[in-house]
Amino acid sequence: MKVLVVGNGGREHALAWKLLQSDRVREIFCVPGNGGTAGLPRCRNLALSVTDFEGMKRFALVNNIGLIVVGPEVPLAAGITDALRSENLTVFGPTQAGAQIESSKAWAKALMQEARIPTARSS
């Protein structure tokens, strides 16, 4: 299987490194990746932005990407999972609505208060 990892941090390097240990993973593409991912075998960095959903869609469809793993909060909050799933691509990551718990601290705080989940007071 070919995998697309979205992000350029240490988390994405660790994800790519671990995914490469699977016999099922043939090749990994990182958007945009970093120096660490550039040095991994069977891993190639792509010159795309983490918010270039159309570019990633095209690449994934043309290259038969079997799994897309999204690390950073910014593309998740912007709806990358929804955009890619609209093309029937398999994405590991929350929807835009699900990402609110991480991307909007006020929304997360309101959710915790409504559900009576213990949380620190906010100002």
Q: Into how many domains do the coordinates divide? A: 1
Report the radius of gyration as a whole number of Å: 16 Å
Instruction: Give the second-level CATH assignment, the architecture.
Output: 3-Layer(aba) Sandwich
Any idea what the shape is? elongated
Helicity, as a percent range: 40-55%
Q: Please write the string of helix (H) and strand (E) elements.
A: EHEHEHEHHEHH
Tell me the number of strands. 5
**Helix segment count?**
7
Rounded average pLDDT? 94
Give the low-pLDDT segments. Answer: none
Q: What can be said about the biggest beta sheet?
A: 5 strands, parallel
Q: Mind sketching the topology for me?
A:
Layout: E1 2-7, H1 10-19, E2 27-32, H2 35-38, E3 43-45, H3 53-62, E4 65-70, H4 73-77, H5 80-85, E5 91-92, H6 96-103, H7 105-114
Parallel strand pairs: 1-2, 1-4, 2-3, 4-5
Helix pairs in contact: 6-7
